[in-house]
Amino acid sequence: MRRRWVVRFAMGTGALAGLFALLAIPLPEEQVVMGAGARPFAWNMDARWEELERRFVAARRAGCDAPVRERLDAAFRALHGRLDELEEAVRASPPEPDDARFEAFEVDFFETAASMGGCLDRLDALLAVHGRLRVLLEELERRWDPGERAVRERLYRLRYGGRTALEALLVQMPPDRMPALQRVLEPSCRGPSTVVRGVRVCSGDVLVSRGGAPTSALIARGNDFPGNFSHVALVHVDAAGRARAIEALIERGLVVTEAADYLADEKLRLMLLRLHPDEARADASTDLAHAAADDALREAREREVPYDFAMDHADPSAYFCSEVALWAYARRGVRLWRGLSTMSSPGLVHWLSSLGVRHFETLAPADLEYDPALVVVAEWRAPRALQREQRHNAVIDALLEEADRGATLDFPPWKLPLARLARAWSALARSLGETGPIPEGMRAPVALRVEMLRARHAEIERAMTPAVERFARERGYVPPYWQLVRMAREAAAATADPR
């Protein structure tokens, strides 16, 4: 009897070992060796950042007495004067992207922001300048070709750079004093609408946001023009004023999310965009934006659309988040994403390839801020979220530098059989209406690499946190972004696997 039990135990153990060995066999993976072949944007202004920080420190020491305020008032008047000149030039004949007046405005805006270190209560004046800049850029985007490299660089420097300079001050403010909402433009809409967080939201509006996960940081930063956004959703508002977000989620594919649930999900920032009035008037017989939202809502209810891990925006059989808005409007004759994002750095391309991406010229969420078919209505920033977002960005920037030096998203081979079992369990859970640990369509090796990215990101963030806190304690202000990148690089080096 005992011998029979031993034989059965040995046979069972051998079968399990054989199954484990079978599940551990790696599948051949397609390797992508070339990305979009473009040139990643680089500021190449480290000395300038140091000088701006010195100016900020000096301004903190100088305080905010009458002479300081007078100098700031003069700086604000000069910035408005430069905008007056640019607006007049745009009305007459749009200046070229290399026009020296853009460079002059950029320099003055950065220097004025740095000079406000002791006068943060004047931030409303800088916000007014920044708001006018955003309106000017909306007009330029209608007149320039967003596919041209010189155009993209100029718009990026002004949009992303202006936001960065502004937010370098916002993170210094007490959370209860930081303005959470910045209004830009608010064109009217003909379809149903409702008010969300103090702003009227129309059916057909587009929401771009930034999630709090490391993968969200990779989506936002992982292209030739690193940005601030990682997700796109299309708004539908019905006749009763009920608002919903139509979105493609990694875990579930195309879904409809109630507005309260959408807003409750962690978002470090949120921006609302609306169809440009000229585009909306193209079809006077119908409310084009609401019709596009109706189409998307109907599709989400009638068709099961999986998530598009390959990021193939030419194939509507599966969607990643940007494709929801893309195809809803395309079917109504409106082309979004007239300028596509490219991914060219070797390390980034290798990492994204290992995560299942197969297309390196694609629809980045941040692209919509530059799209001439849309206008920015408003942007919300959570007071404490900005600092977290900046730390996440700095860590991803440091990780992508590691990737360019050859670092990979490797995982221990023994985890592969467990991940494959988890994937099988996830498929069973989905058939029962539940959510499993691995999203549908995600291969087991990809799930393990995503987990490795999260773990490595968390490791670096933990390692740099003492330096961030020490900097703020000793110097009395939150470290600017270029300092966070330096700390992230040091933390990455200190925690790197010596192998």
Layout: helices, strands, pairs:
Blueprint: H1 2-23, H2 46-62, H3 66-92, H4 100-114, H5 123-143, H6 149-170, E1 181-183, E2 193-196, E3 199-202, E4 206-210, H7 214-221, E5 231-237, E6 243-249, E7 253-258, H8 259-264, E8 269-275, H9 277-280, H10 288-302, H11 321-330, E9 341-342, H12 346-354, E10 361-362, E11 374-381, H13 385-404, H14 415-431, H15 444-475, H16 481-495
Antiparallel strand pairs: 1-11, 2-3, 4-5, 4-8, 5-6, 6-7, 8-11, 9-10
Helix pairs in contact: 1-14, 2-4, 3-4, 3-5, 4-6, 5-6, 7-13, 10-11, 12-13, 13-16, 14-15, 15-16
Query: What's the level 1 CATH class of the largest domain?
Result: Alpha Beta
**CATH homologous superfamily heading of the largest domain:** endopeptidase domain like (from Nostoc punctiforme)
Mean pLDDT: 90
- Number of H/I helices: 16
Order of helices and strands: HHHHHHEEEEHEEEHEHHHEHEEHHHH
Helix content: 40-55%
CATH topology of the largest domain: endopeptidase fold (from Nostoc punctiforme)
- pLDDT under 50 segments (min length 5)? 5-24
Helix/sheet category: alpha+beta
Termini, distance in Å? 51 Å
Largest sheet: 7 strands, antiparallel
Task: Indicate the CATH architecture of the largest domain.
Answer: Alpha-Beta Complex
Number of domains: 3
Instruction: Based on Cα principal axes, name the global outline.
Output: globular
Identify the notable features of this structure and list them briefly:
3 domains, seven-stranded antiparallel sheet, 499 residues, alpha+beta, two-stranded antiparallel ribbon, globular, endopeptidase fold (from Nostoc punctiforme)
